[in-house]
Each structure stands twice: as C-alpha cells, then as structure tokens.
Amino acid sequence: MRNLYYAADKDIEKAEHGIIYLDEFDKIARKSGANNSITADPGHEGVQQALLKMLEGSVVEFTARGQRKHPEAPTIKVDTKNVLFIVGGAFVGIEKIIAKRLQKASSIGFGAEVQGKDEQPKFDELIHQVRPEDLMEYGIIPEIIGRLPVICTLETLDEDALLRILTEPKNAPVKQYEKLLAMDGVTLEFEEDALRAVAQKAIERKTGARSLKGIIEDVMLDVMYEIPKSDAKRSARSSSRRNASRSTRSRG
C-alpha cells in the first residue's frame, strides 16, 4: 500500500481508487494443497491469511518512507475498500489437477470414454477449464478464492508472440544488445530466422518469455567479449585518437 500511496503522489483519495497487482501469487500456495493437517505449510498459509483483511476492504496503516518504526510514529491510513486487486502467477502443475478432475468426471458410468495418451488434452485446452476447486487443491485457501471472483486464464505464448517480445517493446532484448554494441561503434543486426530460432528454443525449454534474454546472452557472450579487443575495434580507436590529436594541434 505504501508504493500505491507514493504512485498516487501522496493523494490518499487517488490511492483508495488505485490498482494493485500481486505477481507470483502461486508461490504462497500451501505445499500440501487441500490437506489441512498440522504438517501443512503454515508460513505460506499465514501470508494468505494476512492478505485477507486487505483484500476484503479495510483501513491499512503504514509509516512514510525512510521513517523509523516506533509506537509514536505518525501513520498514513488508506482504505482498501475500493482498491482493485489483481493477482497472477504461473501456477505450475495446475493443469494436472484439472486433468485429474475432468478424467474422474468423464470416467464414471458404463458409457464413459477412455482416452489414450495421444488423446490427452493439451495445456491450453485444460487451463481454460480451471475452477475454484482446482485452485483450492493447488493450495489457495477458500477465503482468498472467495474474494477473487473473476478467474482469467492465458494461453501459452507461440513463436510469433515471442518474436514480438524480442523486438517490439521499448526495452526489448534485441534493442538492448544493439545499444550495447553501438557504444563500441559496432552495428548489430539480427536476421528474422535467427530470432525465430531463439523463440523456438524458448518454447522447447517451456519457460515462456523469461528465457529469451538468457538464450541471446549465451549466443552473444563470446561476441561481446571479443569485440572490444578485435583488430577492427583497435583500428577504429587509433583512428579516432589520431583525428582527435590533429584537431587539438590545429586548435593550438
């Protein structure tokens, strides 16, 4: 809430109508899923319980940035009743829970169809059928699910989407490396086939857009190491130094 308050230029009314996005929400799921035994993951469940009050709408108090915490320190109060909370995460493995539920539902009765391994639904087909009970089995407590009524799913990024991520954003990996080599006086160009090969490798790793920069880094590591000490680079530097000395002499 402190970050939202400062993002709203310290305007409490604006902050109370802001948007908070909680990423990596699946990381606070209980490791034991729906098992409520004493050996469940109390730390992660405790984090979920702590979020309940804020999600359902309450007055949150916090101190200003850089201020030391003590009982008499002045606090800032923000009501979260009208704040829009959006949570997201990869939820790795939830497709198995969905498939298990669907298989159990379709395998009951004499007329049930038994699917072979080749006929098993793919991830994109499964993820669109997620239900609140699947999230509960994954390890999200029912109270949290009840306060997040809208469930939206995203499909796997395809090759074209990864290609756009590589090239189009302002801080795209391709643009970053072009800027880095431009500092050494080198013009860097990527062919589309090479970029598609990077996207295909990311798909093979099943890590989405996260691995794009790492794949390019592996390819560019030797190039970026060799460029500063290459003959072409040395000649360019010596030429620029000569030109600089000539201009200095002429000025003198």
Tell me, rounded to a whole number, the average pLDDT.
81
N→C terminal distance? 61 Å
Total beta strand runs: 4
Shape: flat
CATH architectural grouping of the largest domain: 3-Layer(aba) Sandwich
Low-confidence stretches: 33-40, 234-252
Largest sheet: 2 strands, parallel
**Helix content range of the residues, please?**
40-55%
Order of helices and strands: HHEHEEEHHHHHHHHH
Strands in their spatial order, largest beta sheet: 1-4
Which structural class should the secondary elements be placed in? Answer: mainly alpha
CATH topology (fold) name of the largest domain: Rossmann fold
Fourth-tier CATH superfamily name of the largest domain: P-loop containing nucleotide triphosphate hydrolases
β-strand percent reads: 5-15%
The CATH class of the largest domain is: Alpha Beta
Number of helices: 12
Count structural domains: 2
**Radius of gyration from CA coordinates:** 27 Å
What would your notes on this structure say?
The protein is mainly alpha-helical and 252 residues long. It has 2 domains: 2-146, Rossmann fold, CATH 3.40.50; 159-242, Orthogonal Bundle (Helicase, Ruva Protein, domain 3), CATH 1.10.8.60. It has helices at 2-7, 12-15, 42-56, 94-106, 123-127, 132-138, 142-146, 159-167, 173-182, 192-205, 212-226, 231-251; strands at 19-22, 59-62, 76-79, 84-87. The chain has a two-stranded parallel sheet. A two-stranded antiparallel ribbon has the order 2-3. The longest helix is centred in the last third of the chain and has 21 residues, at 231-251. The model is unreliable at 33-40 and 234-252 (pLDDT under 50).
